[in-house]
Amino acid sequence: MSEAFINLLERLSRKGKIDKVQVHSKYWFKNEQTIDFKAANFNALAEEIFPSDKALQIEMDYRSLSDQKIWLSLNLKGQSFENGVEVAIDGPISITVAYSDIHRPLIRLENSRGKQALNSETTRQVAEDWRQLFLEICGISEKENDSQSSIDHAAMYLEGGWPSGVGCVMLYHRDTQAFLRDFLHIYREFNQGATIPELLSAENDSSAGNGGESSPSQIADKLQFFQQFDSPAYEESIIDFLQNLSWREATELQKISPEECELLLIDICNQLPEVDLEISESNGLAIMTTPLSSIWSVYHRLKIRALQIG
């Protein structure tokens, strides 16, 4: 884990400037210790932090593809930090980005030239900025298409904890087969309240058993979050998709080969103009859409197409 963190820090530092480094003990904003980042040994810090109850926070200014300034916080959390809750809901490594940074270019343009200036070209540029940042994080950016990345999974999502794939703006898996295992995670998260980082790190991430009992209270908690991604453009609503996905279907989808899955994803993403697909032979596959949206329509189509094959 420390190696993945250091590799990520090195990639972000190419376009970013470190502003502040802090170590937090047990909880955020308590017992902070500011570190001299110019003299810091980040390898040693990362090795110390991961098995502990501490967190390492690195704040930096990052320059996007269009040279927009983005503030971000790169965090490595110990397994017992915040009593383990932080790692359970967001994973051991996370990057926090200010919500306003996503929209700042659009706000500036509207203020100077009016709403008519908010054309598709402008929104495409904003989307491309975040797409390139995500690919940089994953280690499959155009300038780094090799095996240096040691990240197995990554996601971009709105605050509130790492959701299953249907709630992600962008999602990366090093192993293509993981996009099929996502259906098991979608079912367990929506019906039972399981957290995605815990499912991804489980030693036995299999489809054995019957999926367990559903929890009405957990389902109710998830409805409001997922409803924001609904769109009249699709025949089935996201809530219908989640409620109709059965454990039997989720397990049946595991029979599809990685090669068949990749071919289906290529075809599906080509049919969805709002979705981009990035494939690296050595570093995995990323599915991306515009900020504040969701890639759930990819899973909707993947389920239908894959079940027809199976």
Structure description:
- By secondary structure, this protein is α+β, with helices and mostly antiparallel strands.
- It folds into 2 domains: 2-97, no CATH class; 128-309, no CATH class.
- It is 43% helix and 18% strand.
- It contains 12 helices and 9 strands.
- It has helices at 2-13, 42-49, 85-90, 99-113, 120-138, 178-192, 196-201, 216-227, 238-244, 247-252, 258-271, 296-309; strands at 16-25, 33-35, 54-63, 69-77, 93-97, 153-156, 170-173, 276-280, 284-288.
- The strands form 2 sheets. A 5-stranded antiparallel β-sheet has the order 2-1-3-4-5.
- A hairpin with a 7-residue loop joins strand 1 and strand 2 (33-35).
- Helix 1 crosses helix 2 (42-49) and helix 11 (258-271) packs across helix 12 (296-309).
- The longest helix is centred in the middle third of the chain and has 19 residues, at 120-138.
Structural key phrases:
four-stranded antiparallel β-sheet, 310 residues, 2 domains, 12 helices, five-stranded antiparallel β-sheet, single chain, 9 strands, alpha+beta
Mean pLDDT: 85
Strand order, sheet with most strands: 2-1-3-4-5
**First-residue to last-residue Cα separation:** 36 Å
Indicate the percent of residues in helices: 40-55%
Shape: globular
**Number of DSSP strand runs:** 9
Taken as a percent bin, the fraction of beta residues is: 15-25%
Low-confidence parts lasting 5 or more residues at pLDDT below 50? 114-118
The largest sheet, given as strand count, sense and whether it forms a barrel, is:
5 strands, antiparallel
- The helix/strand series, from N terminus to C terminus, equals HEEHEEHEHHEEHHHHHHEEH
Per DSSP, the total helix count is 12
Judged by helices, strands and strand pairing, the structural class is: alpha+beta
Number of domains: 2
Rg calc: 20 Å
- Quaternary structure of the protein: single chain
